Amino acid sequence: MKTNVRYFVVAGILLAAALAIFVSPFASSSPDGLERVAADEGFDGAADDSAVSDSPLADYGVEGIDDDRIATATAGVVGILATFGLGIGIFGLLRVMRPEPTSEAPADPATSGA
Amino acid sequence: MHVPDGFFDATTSIGTGVASAGAIAVGLRRSADELSDRLAPMAGLVAAFIFALQLLNFPVASGTSGHLLGGALAAVLVGPWVGLVCVSIVLLVQALVFADGGLTAYGLNVILVAIVPAFVGYGVYRLVRALLPANRRAVVAGSAVGAFVSVPVAAAVFAVLFAVGGSIDLEFSSVLTAMVGTHLLIGIGEAAITAAIVSAVVTTRPDLVHGARDLAVDLELRTGTGATVLEAS
């Protein structure tokens, strides 16, 4: 049976981390499509600072790490772990909350109202 | 395409927030039904991998960059409903931890980066699959076309929402043309990255690709039930 998802997931997380560590420091720092259009059309000034703009990881930097490449790589790995952890947590919780699948004789729906 | 705070008025921010919350609620419910115990970690991986890919801004024309939205990729890998939850998780981490995308703009970003790309991408994917033979090449082609189309459509939705509730009054056609024009180029990158990832996964583990379940079922039948079925097929 080709059921082992765990190896695949671990390999995927390692690949994601490798992208964050080795590739993201070389990503383009030009404004993205929306930022560029906002500047060209003259609505970029409407942007307000995020309420969390003083977060130690704001804008994918890391407070206390001056080397931009190391900071970007570190922020990326933290973000991958946070996203994965939150995802596993949420999807795992759904699994726990899901009622046991019943093959027959389902209980009367509580909403029947009859 | 992460909308910061301040681009949209309060009514639009609240309205899109409520709409997004509703879509996420349905997405969670569908995830509980669709995700087997086996595939729950796969959904976590999809979220984490899209976070990583969104870090990688690639240059497009004239001092502009773009990055993957990921909705179409997620939809092909885990289905549009689980996919929209995955991308919404990415957006939540980005907004809360990295100040990327405004907190009041979270609903807008869920619509533009998660919901629209996931469903437009998946719709186009199904259309392409229906037109092509049932094989892995069609899965990759459908993913590429779906991903490509999803980006300018999301850009157009931004322009419509900005005309309705943008904090600055601008000519709709001007914003629409600029947004769609720029994002057509970014869509090419979206298509290339999505095709590469889907191709890699569907080659190594077709059973883990939601959009290729029709192909994986054949394989499972042959290996799981023995020689008679193998002969019959």
What does this structure look like?
- The complex is a heterodimer of chains A (114) and B (233).
- Chain A contains three helices and no strands.
- Chain A is mostly helical and 114 residues long.
- Chain A has a domain at 1-27 and 55-100.
- Chain A is extended and about 55 Å long.
- With 233 residues, chain B is mainly α.
- Chain B has one domain: Arp2/3 complex 21 kDa subunit ARPC3 (Orthogonal Bundle).
- Chain B contains nine helices and two strands; from the N terminus they run ααββααααααα.
- Chain B has helices spanning 10-34, 40-54, 71-78, 80-97, 106-131, 136-165, 172-204, 213-225, 227-232, and strands spanning 58-60, 64-66.
- Chain B has a two-stranded antiparallel ribbon.
- In chain B, 59% of the residues are buried.
What's this, in brief?
The complex is a heterodimer of chains A (114) and B (233). Chain A has 114 residues and is mainly alpha-helical.
Total number of strands of chain A: 0
Q: State the order of secondary-structure elements of chain A, H for helix, E for strand.
A: HHH
Query: How much helix, percentage-wise, in residues of chain B?
Result: over 70%
Low-confidence stretches of chain A: 102-108
Span from first to last CA of chain B? 47 Å
SSE string of chain B: HHEEHHHHHHH
- Give the oligomer, counting copies of the same chain as homo and different chains as hetero: heterodimer
